[in-house]
Amino acid sequence: MECQSATNTWLAYRETVDLQAKPEKAVAKIAVDSKYWLWINGQVVVFEGGLKRGPNPLDTYYDEVDIAPYLKSGKNTVALLVWYFGKDGFSHKSSGRAGLIFDCQSPGFELLSDNSWKCSLLKSYLTASEPLPNFRLPESSILYDARKDLGSWQTENYDESNMSGALVLGKAGDYPWNKLVRRPIPLLKDFGLKSYLTQNKSAFSQNNDTIICELPYNAQVTPYLKVEASEGMKITICTDNYIHFNGGADLIRAEYITKTGVQEYESLGWMNGHKVYYIIPKGVKVLELKYRESGYNTEFGGSFHCSDPFFNKLWGKANRTLYVTMRDSYMDCPDRERAQWTGDAVNEAGESFYALSPSSHALARKWLHEIIGWQRPDGSLFAPVPTGNWNAELPCQVLASIGYYGLWTYYQYTGDKQTITDLYTGVKRYLNLWVPDGKGTMKFRTGDWSWGDWGENKDMLLIYNLWYYLAIKGAHNMALELGKTDDAAKYAEFMADFKTSFNKQFWHGTAYRDPAYKGRTDDRTQALAVVSGVAEKEKYPELLKVFQTEEQASPYMEKYVFEAMMQMGYEKEALERHQKRFSGMVNNNRFTTLFEGWGIGNEGYGGGTVNHAWSGGGLTILSQYVCGIAPLKPGFEKFKVMPQCGNLTEASATMESVCGKIQTSWKKRPKAFELHVSVPESTIALVGIRSQSIKSVSLNGKVVWKNGEYLNKLFLPKENIQNGRICFEIKYGEWFFVAQ
Fold it and tell me: What are the angstrom distances between the C-alpha of 343 and each of 267, 375, 613?
């Protein structure tokens, strides 16, 4: 009854229940705004449950947790700590109401949140002083005053007499939480408390000592301390990102006010960086400092290695950058915004298919459902969502998400047909908002923010038109897959007319340019023309000259330049350009992650964060093109391995597909090319080896192709392939090719 749903409210809930026997299964449905931690019989069951609101502007997510393994016959204590953000942000829409729904019903056991539960407003949790976190973040910086600590209220034998009865505010489905939607992603992974790599003291001010603790890499962490002190001493905890690399905005930090004696505390508002700073007042004795990493529950199932250490380091940094920008949703960065900017999410999803295990796919599915779930009544789409204080449409980012590189690519890598079935109508509604210009191309749709990329020299009309074409291409493929033949025919006709018109209007002999555009030739536009299929092959030599002279693209759009050059067949030049452009951030040994811009701070974009997943698109290209792994049919029912070697002498990759682990490695020898492919069960691989100068190919020690003829028809591909490669169709097993 004390709770007024104020910003940064923390509540303790507690209930006891007697069981005659331990149940085999007991699934609890738990909903909060915004976060919770669950203990049963004093044991941590969930470390940070709950998802930021919501699946759409009205509704709220709920978790499902099987608590049976933690229950016992006899008396059981269930305790939850609830953190109510109480403010909007770029990743959360506040309901305006703190509370808890707990619903566990199983044979012989029922536990429902009601007025029999004990509840207490935790007055020890306060808000840290200014500077407050910037307006994009719904989280507050936490000040914990240990002098007001409620004690070990999560444990079994705690005296509940100082806790009041909970007040029933409504039932599931009531306003303002409205419909409860099942959590679509796994609960977070808790890596446990760990010791820092190093701890070094340095003078911070006359009255304080600073202990700088080094993390093994950029991670999402909750810092822990154990100290001995008298009461009233304030300890401040933050990361190097807060102090030095804040992306131009105030971030999250933590403060702790001591009580008398030995005490320990873990600040539950996660932060990230490479180092954690503990600013300790004189007179406080530090006994122990640790950190807990937590993050999205997936495995690092993919790998890449090649003969050039630069690209190995790039792939590794991109992988780390990807993981630190995944939690409740994809994030552009884990510090300044924590927002699901949807163009960033396109790159993140593409990277996750190659770098992480299939459990990561659920985050991509959640992102795509949220984009359409937040669709406005007029059919327009905007991002980031979920959000409570942003509503601007960025047309090109939306198009990237709902089209070929977003929704269609998700389907290709996952085989999740239900998602394209669910979202197709919303995609079509948005595409229908765009207005033709009467020339076969589209009028410029300003949306609410005419953003084509960071940086200068953006040929905006062409960027928007090519993203629209790619969105139509994705919609066309989805229409065919869903049996919507009329839509597919309409889209195919549009694409044919568009391609003819676009080339006629905007090709000027050496590059694509809008006649009204006066800046330098835009490499982004040329890249989109290639990857969309709008640019004909005879234009490739001229486009290569553009890519070798113009460097306008941000790290976000550089992924599409890299891909375009690989698709054109200029592998050596593609690798050289990517290495040149990314050398500064990849070779910077201070950071394990990639930057938002080409530099940090003023040398970057938008403040220049040091951990921006949109910069990791090279990871995708290295696995997809250098090692050649890509799906040919949805869900890897059939896939290809067609390496593009460039100036590398060897490379290998592993990916965890939905069909199982795919592994491939290749090596150039003086007079031979060796290729190993591991094909999982229930799928087929189409393997292609460059035919230039090849006289024979052996497979697992037997010659299967010689002087232009297949000697074993068993491996002859069903498709008629004319791509300058000798192709073989193989099934489950380990396959070793040697091309002489």
Answer: 32, 16, 11
Tell me the two tokens of residue 77: 């204590």
Contact 696/706 with Cβ under 8 angstroms?
yes
**How big is the chain by its Cα radius of gyration, in Å?**
28
Give per-residue burial for 470-486: e unless 16+ CB within 10 Å, then b: bbbbbbbbbbebeebee
Cα separation of 546 and 99, whole Å? 58
* 427-483 pLDDT per residue, tens: 999 999 999 999 999 999 999 999 999 999 999 999 999 999 999 999 999 999 999
- List pLDDT tens digits, range 422-443: 999 999 999 999 999 999 999 9
Helix (H) or strand (E) holding 550: none
DSSP state of 128: P
- Report d(CA 740, CA 733) in Å as an integer: 23
Q: Which residue shows structure tokens 């047909």?
A: 417
3-state DSSP call for residue 463? helix
Angle between helix 417-431 and helix 395-402 axes, rounded to 10 deg: 150
β-strand partners of 184: none
Distance separating alpha carbons of residues 278 and 280, to the nearest angstrom: 6
Instruction: Report yes or no: 578 and 304 within 8 Å, Cβ to Cβ.
Output: no
Query: In angstroms, what CA-CA distances link 590 with 277, 325, 584?
Result: 16, 19, 11
Q: Helix, strand, or coil here: 319?
A: helix
Angle at which helix 540-549 crosses helix 571-586, to 10 degrees, equals 20
Sheet holding 638-641, edge to edge: 629-631, 638-641, 684-690, 725-730
Q: Can you tell me the distance from the alpha carbon of 168 to that of 304, in angstroms, rounded to the nearest whole number?
A: 54
Find, among 5, 49, 30, the residue nearest to 268 by Cα. Answer: 49
88: left (phi over 0), alpha (psi -120 to 50) or beta: beta
C-alpha of 292 from chain center: 20
- Nearest-angstrom CA–CA distance, 547 and 389: 39
- pLDDT tens column, 601-617: 777 776 689 999 899 99
CA atoms within 13 A on the CB side of 499: 16
Pairwise CA distance, residues 650 & 673, whole Å: 10
Chain center to CA of 721: 35
Helical residues (DSSP H) of 62-197, grouped into ranges: none
